[in-house]
Amino acid sequence: MNTRMTLLRGITVALAAAVIGGCNSGSSSSLAAGGVANGVIIGLTDAPGAFVSYQVDVTSLTLTKADGATVETVPVTTRVDFAQYADLTEFLTGATVPSGKYTGATMTLDFTNADIEVEDAGGNIVKVPPANIVDDSGDRITTLQTSVMLSEGGGSFTVVPGLPALMTVDFNLNASNSVDLSGATPVVTVQPVLVADIDPAAPKPHRLRGALKSVDLQGDGFTLYVRPFFRALAGRDTRFGALSVGVDGNTLFDIDQAAYQGAAGLTQLAAEPGFTAVVVLGNVDPATRAFTATQVLAGSSVPGGTLDAIQGTVVQRQGDVLTIKGATLSRSDGSVTFGALATVQLA
What was the pLDDT predicted at 24? Predict the structure, then answer.
């Protein structure tokens, strides 16, 4: 590996206008059904790269209308680890926005407490000190506001009831972010460029985290209050909106550590109390914006639901002890911590 390397990341934003006719064919739910009546559904993703961790705070994602009016879509600062989303998109929020023509978007990132980790030439994980996250002038970056360039539709998109759109925003760090490993500690230079493409033909699998709002047994679906990434489920926070999920006979459920499939799983989910923790993996139909679940975890089956859970890559085993790289620890009290390495004792 050269001492200077470039890395690629992406962010996907899914825009949906109005309720899209409720459930579709009884097996998949419009994302907006039961949730966003008229507005925008936003998700984040990234592309493969050499970051082990790229955690920053997203403090704002603002849409700008043709008349200059702005609409904020992120209700509260949200911690995001962009290194985790190479293979899927995670829903961030379902925000109600007025109909009309939108000509731009702006994202604000806070690097003050960023946790950025990379691998060096020897395969070792190296943490980048926040003071070493700089702009192209070498000055430390704390808060960074960057515009999203709309590459299609004449540099604009329109939110109209009944006319959904899917917008993919590419956070191209290959062009605007580099890591210098030549010194005693690595230095990350950030000069982001974000470009939006409209209506991708093949969106990645999506993940949705949230709290159970309702179950529709007749419509073969359920609705969650969105709780993105690792925001604790404590309390009844509904500020991120609600999204609907469809199920079919192939949907696998793991509820309170018991397995179900199809209608049996949906029936069991209906017996869970409101605001039960749920994580969904599934696929979005780019034509209808229907989101159909392939896997549903609920209750104590959700990492950190009633037990502590750790996720990462096993890089070593010595006897009954595993060493985990890029560890994410979800605690049963709702807290989440990240670390370069962790050990797990096996019984």
Answer: 32
